Amino acid sequence: MSAPAQRPRFGNRRLVRSLAVAGTGVAMVALPLFGATAASAATTGTTAAAASTTAYPDNLDGWIRESLDVMAQNGIPGTYDGIHRNIMRESSGNPLAINNWDSNAAAGTPSKGLLQVIDPTFQAYHVPGTAFDPYDPVANITAACNYAADRYGSIDNVFSAY
Question: What is the pTM assigned to this prediction?
Answer without folding.
Answer: 0.69
